[in-house]
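=== RUN LOG ===
request id: a7f3
mode: sequence -> structure
chains: 1
length: 127
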Amino acid sequence: MMIKQLSVFLENRPGTLDEALKVLKEAGVNMTALSLADTSEFGIMRIISDDPDAAKQAMKSAGYTSIVNEVIEVELKHEVGYLAGIVGKLSKAGVNIEYMYAAPSDKSSARMIIKTDDAVKAEEAIG
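=== RESULT ===
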């Protein structure tokens, strides 16, 4: 299913993540998934939350640059090759995966957050 993800650009220095997470906490934003990637100069914090628009506003008010975009959330069965099947469907449909990360779920499944070049086409391909 398509969901909204907030991407926040962070300076790559000690304390930046702590400061950003405090902003979200003070805004009452509940995160259900988080990914953090970095380069030598900046990092990107990607979050799935219960209210991505409120999260974006809180980050903007605190001076952070952020964007909300659509990603695909897929429930993965705990079966050998299940993720390979999902990726195969996207590949066959000509959908490029830009990045993906795991998110917590329950013991019988897992969640994968997938950013593609075409979220609508990806959702159709996965079914």
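=== NOTES ===
The first helix runs from residue 16 to 26.
The chain has two domains: 2-69, 71-126.
=== END ===
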